[in-house]
Every structure is written in C-alpha cells, then in structure tokens.
C-alpha cells in the first residue's frame, strides 16, 4: 500500500459569512509526491492548502498526516512535521538572513544541542544557495533571494511536508522556473498553490484543479491539465507541441481570439 503523507476526506469550509469556500473535497498525497493546486482566483486553492497544513480547521471533514488525525496533534508536533511558506509572509526587513532562517529551529528548541541547530541552519543556507547572504538584512534581498530564504527557514524546520502558497509571485519567468526546479529536487512531500501554469508540468507529479470550491480534475499533469479542462476552468487554450530544437514536448498556454 502506498504510504500516504496527506489524506483529506470530505473537506468543507464555510466562514461565518456562510458562503462555502470548499465543499466535499477529498484528496490524498503519497509520500514524496509533489502536488500542484491550481485554479482561477477565488476558487478555494489557498483555503484547501491551509486546511491540509492544519493552519485552520475544516467546517466538516478530516485531515490526516501520515495516518495521524491533524486535530489530535500538538502544534509543536505538527510544526516538526510540516513547514509552510505563505504568500503573505513579511519578515522584519532588519533581521539578518541567518537569524531569519534560524527561526525554523523554534519547534526543536530543547530537543537538540545549539551546535546542532547552527549546523542545520548552515546546511539550509548552503542547500538553497544563499550562504553568501547570511549576514545581510532580509530587506536587502531580491524577490528570488527572499523566497529562497523563506524556503531555507522551512528546511531548517526539518519537515517531512512542505506547503508553498504561490511561491512564484513577483518573480520573473526564469526565477520562477529555477525556484520550482529547486523545490522539485527536495527530498520532501510538497504541496504548492500555483498561479503560473507554465511551471506546473515540470514541477508537479500530481495536479489538483480547483474551481468554485470543488476539485474538478486530479491526476498526473498530462491528465489533469487536459485541453478541455484548461478551456473550461481558465478560459484559455492548451497545446502540447514538439520542441523545435530539443527532444522533448512543450506545453503552450494560449489566450485564443475566440473559443
């Protein structure tokens, strides 16, 4: 049997306003998989990620992480298992990069020696390629460097599952591709909410398409991102074409003059 990292069953979420943001959503993520959650604005993507990460509780339904009910987990135990990089994370611009990454060690305080904590922080800086920036203030970093610092902080947490909420926002096309290739190379289960469809095929092993609070397609990228689904959900077209130079296929998203 496949070892499930995440299992969400019959999830629904309604804020006090009463409008359902998610309704009857079930999803599972195997250990080591990379799930991209995509959909139009307001579809419920971030809400789904927050429920799966335990940042908020569902109105109904259950979430299990490695077969443990997330509601029964202590916050510190969840923080040792799950790391989240949110789209609205705004670290103090005056904090130096090393100290910021060191915040990822908070859930482990008292569990390991301080020298081990420092070694883990150093390893996270090296792994994300920002060791040269360790003494700089967070406010001096570019958008891509800041995203890597946020991921370094998450890696210092030593999680088994990494949640990313729109990590490519404010990055140029090359930086987006580089960042998601780096994340894909991590030996972790990753769940990412993505707006940029171009980075999905090379990053994800599974794709969940969310529309109006429901999952309307889920599976490997070439199945979930069918032309019909992309047209219906996003109002754009999709073509898979041979690369003109390299021996590979290219996925092209196009805004047609008329569908």
UniProtKB/TrEMBL annotation:
UniProt keyword annotations, A-Z: ATP-binding, Nucleotide-binding, Translocase, Transport
Record InterPro entries: AAA+_ATPase (IPR003593), ABC_transporter-like_ATP-bd (IPR003439), ABC_transporter-like_CS (IPR017871), P-loop_NTPase (IPR027417)
Boundaries of every ABC transporter domain copy: 6-237
GO molecular function, one term: ATP binding
Pfam family, one: ABC_tran
The family this protein is said to belong to: Belongs to the ABC transporter superfamily.
Job description of the protein: Part of the ABC transporter complex HmuTUV involved in hemin import. Responsible for energy coupling to the transport system.
PANTHER family in UniProt: HEMIN IMPORT ATP-BINDING PROTEIN HMUV
Listed name of the protein: ABC transporter ATP-binding protein
Lineage: Bacteria, Pseudomonadati, Pseudomonadota, Alphaproteobacteria, Hyphomicrobiales
């Amino acid at each position: 049997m496949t070892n499930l990292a995440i299992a969400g069953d019959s999830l629904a979420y309604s804020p006090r306003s009463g409008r359902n943001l998610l309704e009857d959503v079930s999803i599972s993520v195997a250990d080591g998989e990379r799930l991209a959650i995509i959909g139009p604005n307001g579809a419920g993507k971030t809400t789904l990620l927050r429920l799966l990460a335990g940042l908020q509780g569902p109105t109904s339904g259950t979430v299990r992480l490695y077969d443990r009910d997330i509601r029964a987990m202590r916050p510190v135990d969840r923080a040792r298992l799950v790391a989240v990089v949110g789209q609205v994370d705004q670290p103090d611009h005056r904090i130096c990069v090393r100290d910021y990454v060191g915040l990822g060690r908070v859930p482990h305080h008292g569990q390991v020696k301080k020298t081990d904590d420092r070694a883990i922080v150093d390893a996270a800086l090296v792994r994300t390629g920002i060791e040269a920036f360790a003494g700089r203030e967070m406010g001096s970093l570019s958008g891509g460097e800041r995203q890597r610092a946020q991921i370094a902080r998450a890696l210092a947490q030593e999680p088994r599952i990494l949640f990313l909420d729109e990590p490519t926002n404010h990055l140029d096309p090359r930086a987006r591709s580089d960042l998601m290739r780096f994340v894909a190379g991590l030996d972790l289960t990753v769940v990412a909410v993505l707006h940029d469809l171009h980075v999905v095929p090379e990053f994800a092993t599974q794709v969940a398409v969310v529309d109006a609070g429901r999952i309307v397609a889920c599976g490997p990228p070439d199945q979930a991102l069918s032309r019909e689904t992309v047209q219906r959900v996003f109002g754009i077209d999709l073509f898979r074409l041979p690369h003109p130079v390299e021996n590979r296929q290219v996925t092209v998203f196009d805004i047609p003059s008329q569908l």
